[in-house]
Amino acid sequence: MDVQLNGKNDDGFGIEVVLLEGDTKAPSCPHGPTLLFEKASKGEEKGRRFYACSACRDRKDCNFFQWEDEKVSETRLLARESENQSKKPLFTHRQYCSRFKVFKSLREDQRRLCQECDLLLVPEERGAHIGHKAPADDITDAQLQRPSTLLRPLENKKSNAQYLFTDRSSHFLLDTLAGRGFQKVLCVGTPRLHELIKQRNLEGKSKPMKSLLLDIDFRYAQFYGQDEFCHYNMFNHHFFGGEAARAVLQAFLGEGADGERVVMVADPPFGGLVKPLANSFSSIANTWQSLQTTGGSDKEMPMIWIFPYFFEPRILECFPSFVMLDYQVDYDNHPLYKHGKTGRKQSPVRLFTNLAPRDIVLPKEEGYRFCAMCQRYVSSQNRHCSQCNVCPSKDGREWRHCSECQKCFKPSWRHCTSCGRCALPDHPCGRSQGGKQEGCFNCGSPAHKRRACPLADAQRSHKSKTKAKKGSANQRPPKPKRMSGAARRALKKTALVT
Questions:
Q1: Distance between CA 132 and CA 150 in Å, rounded?
Q2: Cα dist. 95→92, 100, 224, 242 in Å?
Q3: Pairwise CA distance, residues 230 & 237, whole Å
Q4: What's residue 190's pLDDT?
Q5: Are the C-beta atoms of 210 and 237 separated by less than 8 Å?
Q6: Cα 325 from Cα 309, distance rounded (Å)
């Protein structure tokens, strides 16, 4: 399955991610199996392919790079394996669980967390961490129930980007899911929601719910048992715990004797690649579907994908049954993604779901209302357009209808007669807002993508004749022994893919 992503620059350079099929195996870095990318340039039928890290878009975080057709020496393979082993957690999940029991048995004034190592310290380890930073305050049982308040968020935007729900968003999500009758919540990258479920269960004021946290942050293994947490990379559907962790997920997704309903809530890093994420979520949904004993094989796993609204076209391309809701998700530790702000400063993060929109009641006190024509709850300023027959706004502001484009746009956009479309008043005509050419990498047309370019056949024919004349049809450039400048540039360009 080949997928084209929007990663290109003024020179016609683009990066596509290629999702592997069948038994093809990708080399691994410390974050699990890598992704296969293809570098495409103007006029080229096919670009050269390379493997790079699935989770990190910055070489400073993970510098793995390998051409697809490159032969790797045994020495390099051994060095790579050594590097992967060195990046593994200090302890196994089972060992972390044993340590947590010891830690919890200590008095609160004896409990210490090393903030430099992100490690709960048992008494005999304190000497080795005596020069490290640790909070002076006692660690209470309540804090141990909310590890996200103890651990420092990993806020590298190009890798972990660990932003945490506010209590407002966490309570809304959980109240909505409980109201819809779900008894199990698969929390993919949503530690705050997982914490809240466990906290409510302890309070005993509502019907108990089960939750399983899948997260790339292995630090949570210190706080949760093996049936509550799996170390997981959502960009390549990789379980660091192997088949044992996969079995935990499979057991959780089963309905059980009481027919417990399962829903998945995923909150990926916003700089992540949509297609690999969708591939992972589809794999989870397929596992769920294979375990269903009632309702037939055409049922969809209930899912909520939390992502910025400007990714809507890409998400709907992967999951056509999804609908984007107007609810604004906000985060404690994000400087801009806050509910209640106006214009560009308000949170752009939304809920994409296959649940019925009319059944997800958005709070009236936060400025949402029900649109009878759309049969869903919308932002108070999202006015229904009688010509489009939808509530068109994506960003919470009231949009305006363009009679020439026959579509609604942001209030700041105006129709450009030169471009024949609506855009910002100061946009460069014939170009995208960022000054980058849109559409086909091959011919520059905005009407299609490179793989559908009508000039492709002519170019293939011309290249074949040229190669035949030169007698070089089977020649290949020498394979680099070390990472070349082109390799470094190609790896760097993966940071442009969103």
A1: 16
A2: 5, 9, 12, 16
A3: 12
A4: 96
A5: no
A6: 9
Angle between helices 274-290 and 243-253 (to 10 degrees): 60
Distances (CA, A) of 84 to 22, 32, 73, 141: 25, 9, 17, 35
Q: Which residues contact 174 (CB under 8 A, 6 or more apart)?
A: 185, 193, 196, 197, 200
414 pairs with which residues across the strands? 423
Give the H/E segment covering residue 193: helix 191-203
Separation between Cα atoms, residue 38 and residue 33, nearest integer Å? 16
pTM to 2 decimal places: 0.82
SS3 at position 184 = strand
Determine what percent of the chain falls in helix, strand and coil, rounding each to the nearest 5.
30, 20, 50
Torsion 388-393-398-403 (CA) sign: negative
Query: Which of 2-11, 55-64, 308-317, 446-455 holds the top average pLDDT?
Result: 308-317
Which is more confidently placed, 485 or 251?
251
Q: Look up residue 118 and give its amino acid.
A: D
Give the pLDDT confidence score for residue 487 in this predicted structure.
62
* Residue 310 DSSP one-character state: G
Which conformational region is residue 159 in: left (phi greater than 0), alpha (psi within -120 to 50 degrees), or beta?
Answer: alpha
Fill in the amino acid letter for 497: V
- Tokens 């308040």 belong to 149
DSSP conformation class of 364: G
**Of 126 and 197, which is predicted with more confidence?**
197
Give yes or no for residue 484 having a pLDDT over 50. yes
pLDDT in tens, 54-74: 998 787 889 999 999 999 999
Grade residue 251 by pLDDT with cuts at 50, 70 and 90.
very high
Question: Cβ(248)–Cβ(240) under 8 Å?
Answer: no
What residues contact residue 458 under an 8 Å CB cut-off, 6+ apart? none
Buried b (16+ CB within 10 A) or exposed e, 163-201: bbbbebbbebbbebbbeeebbbbbbbbbbbbbbbbbebe
At 265-289, the pLDDT tens digits run 999 988 788 999 999 999 999 999 9
**What residues are paired with 239 via a beta bridge?**
232
User: Which residues on neighbouring strands pair with residue 307, listed in sequence order?
Assistant: 350
Q: What is the pLDDT of residue 389?
A: 95
